[in-house]
Amino acid sequence: MTSLHRALVGFLLVVLAAVSGAASKSFTITNNCEYTVWPGILSSAGSAGMDATGFALAPGESRAMAVPSGWSGRLWGRTLCSTDAGRFSCVTGDCGSGKQDCAGGGAAPPTTLAEFTMDGSGGMDFYDVSLVDGYNLPVLVAPQGAAAGGNCAPTGCMADLNGACPADLRVASASGGAGAGVACKSACEAFGSAEYCCSGDHGNPSTCKPSAYSQFFKNACPRAYSYAYDDATSTFTCAGGDTTYAMTFCPSTTSVKAAGASPQAAGGLPLMNDTMVYLGADQLGAAAAARPPSSLLLAVAALVLAGALC
């Protein structure tokens, strides 16, 4: 099936679902990266399934999908995928099914996750982009056509963090040069301690606090979840209605403009902190020197520079 045929099928599914009343919402998933991305989809237990749970998106390709009423689950992007001896697998975001279709398998961390609960409490849609399980791709989620109400705004992580990832969190590419990164682990995955995993004695908001590692993610992507209890600035809601959620891999400022929202929306929170975008060691050093000399910011700058230089 050609990309044009897939796009037409996706569009017809959305139209038919809307006419039949089976669904009033949809996802439009776009790959703005310079390489193929294989989206994965996992529905929560008890939630109706989507029409597909995994597929390929070539650079510049989009796919529209109808969303069942009350659906909840997560979406992510898989990268560096291939088929060996008949088994499909990906270097990042692999769901373990051995096929393009994830078929109920979840994303192996580290992976950037987009999480949704449709038609939830008060009829609101709840959504977020989470780096709690680490990061592998820049992702933007932007609601379109939503009714007034809620904290309804684009969210995500637009920065490329793989190059700037601290050395002790970095997932290196087997085929890349020394230090080449394809993903960035969470501190929980890297070290497994209760302090970073918000477990055991640290299993509540009073005892689990941001760390220098979670601040690396938060400073780069202020609206994304950086650790388990990062709810206040990371959960977004839209009033019920016929809302389309545009999910873009490797978004650009053009993507934000197309979503009809300012990067400074959502209570003044930017979509990303420009000083944390990976540009190279010299630019990062200059950006770190220009920031206020608080101990926390200096610690984060040191982590970023360590990741860029090691």
TrEMBL record:
Residues 1-24 form the signal peptide. Keywords: Disulfide bond, Signal. Pfam families: Thaumatin. PROSITE patterns: THAUMATIN_1, THAUMATIN_2. The keyword Disulfide bond applies. Transmembrane segments: none annotated. Disulfide bonds join 33-250, 81-90, 95-102, 152-238, 157-221, 165-184, 188-197, 198-208. It comes from the Eukaryota. InterPro entries: Osmotin/thaumatin-like_sf (IPR037176), Thaumatin (IPR001938), Thaumatin_CS (IPR017949). The keyword Disulfide bond applies. This is Thaumatin-like protein 1.
